[in-house]
Amino acid sequence: MMNENGPGLTDFMPDAVKPGEVVVARAGEPLPANAEIADKEAVIAALRMVFDPEIPVNIYDLGLVYDLEIKSDGSVRVEMTLTTPACPVAGDLPVWVADTVAGAEGVGEAEVHLVWEPQWTPDRLSDEAKLALDLF
Predict the structure, then answer these.
(1) What digits encode the pLDDT tens for the residues 70-98?
(2) What is the mean pLDDT of the chain?
(3) What is the spatial distance between Cα 66 and Cα 46, in angstroms, rounded to a whole number?
(4) Residue 59's closest CA among 72, 40, 46, 73?
(5) What pTM value is reported for the model?
(6) Phi and psi dihedrals of 125, rounded to 5?
(7) Which 3 state secondary structure label does DSSP give 110?
(8) I need a labelling partner for 83 at 20 to 30 A (CA). Which of 20, 105, 115, 121 fits?
């Protein structure tokens, strides 16, 4: 569908996630009542196992993870973004993140929210990502 200003992103990429569109992915099961809960480092290690398929850097070091909350029951909430709404795996990446985080030892349910504010910029790259991308 064309907008009044001409063709839009969805005219060329119908599966693109639109800024402002809410994408939530969930995975995992509640932990048993007396299970040991994962710490932040364990969840970050899981996040570092997920890579943007077009960039050889994990999503955590790319700066795509904006917020991480580990609740007392072992459930985890991640708020993340993408480098661009036109990312070809925009609908899949939050699912990959939820599955990977939920698979970490001490994590029960994982919920991943895709957000667009603030907009991602290369300033969010970790030093490791800058080194891997030869940006130093």
Answers:
(1) 999 999 999 999 988 788 888 899 999 99
(2) 86
(3) 15
(4) 46
(5) 0.82
(6) -65, 140
(7) strand
(8) 105
- In angstroms, the CA 65 to CA 5 distance is 33
The answer for residues whose C-beta is within 8 angstroms of residue 63's C-beta and 6 or more apart is 120, 123, 124, 125, 126, 129
Q: Which of 125, 123, 120 is nearest to 84 (CA)?
A: 120
Q: Which tens digits make up the pLDDT trace of 83-136?
A: 887 888 888 999 999 999 999 999 999 999 999 889 999 999 999 999 988 886
**Residue keyed to tokens 């364990």:** 42
Cα separation values, 84 from 71, 88, 121, Å:
29, 9, 10
DSSP 30: P
Contact indicator for 46, 68 with CB cutoff of 8 Å: no
Please list, in sequence order, all residues whose beta carbon lies within 8 angstroms of the beta carbon of residue 41, skipping any fewer than 6 positions away.
Answer: none
